[in-house]
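Re-run with default settings, no changes from the original entry. Doing this only to confirm the output is reproducible before filing.
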Amino acid sequence: MTVRISITVNGRRFDRDVEPRQLLVHFIRDLGGFTGTKIGCDTSQCGSCTVLLDGVAMKSCTCLAVQADGSEVITIEGLAKEGQLHPLQEAFWNKHGLQCGFCTPGMIMASHELLRTNPKPTDDAIRHGLAGNLCRCTGYQNIVRAVREAATAMAK
């Protein structure tokens, strides 16, 4: 059995027949081809699959594709506009907020949500806002610096 759904990913509409049990992360990666969204733990612990669903950050491994029917999804690929990196992407680059890069898309998308709701966060607020995302490489300090730089850039 399949269900016909329509999801807009990074401005592109996808009309697809999916199994009701298909996760949104698989829809994004396999049917949409947006592989920046990572599959890390499949249990919502790591945050590597974080995307914006109708403007709000969520872990796409915890959502069925059918639940996102009619919604708009923004992935890490959708943040850059016309070849220009989003201030968060640029700040992660400038402040070395990544090493292997596996967690980076989820960290950036979670940071986007944090800055949407708190445009001038303290370092403690940044750490709290990213508590649902795990990184095994950086030790987080450069990630906090990157979010702080992005907040300053986005306030201008």
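Residues 3-79 form a domain with the Ubiquitin-like (UB roll) fold (CATH 3.10.20.30). The first helix runs from residue 24 to 31.
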